[in-house]
TrEMBL record:
It comes from the Eukaryota. This is DDE Tnp4 domain-containing protein.
Length: 106
């Protein structure tokens, strides 16, 4: 099974296969058309998965592009210290799924 087929099967939806957008060399100028699709043509609850180098700082893209936690992220430790165990477990599961999805795409 090739990566494209795996993504279609795993996510259930793929409107267009754009492997060049998965590369870390992609910048905001190249991805501008993707931003429009994420904002105006993507149903609620759906999002793009990217690496942390992908430009996603615009407030209007909040929640439309998900990235795995950075290795030096303090969020998980902070949740544990505050006793927010359910949130910790949920975030850890979600992060594991993001990493797995990205690895499948690479």
């Amino acid at each position: 099974m090739d990566v494209q087929s795996l993504l279609l099967e795993y996510h259930g939806l793929c409107s267009r296969w754009m492997p060049h957008l998965l590369q870390s060399t992609c910048d905001a100028a190249v991805a501008r058309h993707l931003y429009g699709k994420l904002l105006y043509r993507t149903p609620g609850g759906f999002f793009a998965i990217a690496d942390t180098a992908f430009p996603r700082n615009e407030a209007r893209l909040q929640g439309r592009i998900k990235t795995p936690l950075k290795k030096n992220s303090t969020l998980l430790r902070q949740l544990l210290q505050e006793g927010r165990i359910a949130e910790y477990r949920s975030l850890l599961r979600f992060n594991t799924q993001l990493v797995s999805s990205r690895q499948a795409a690479e």
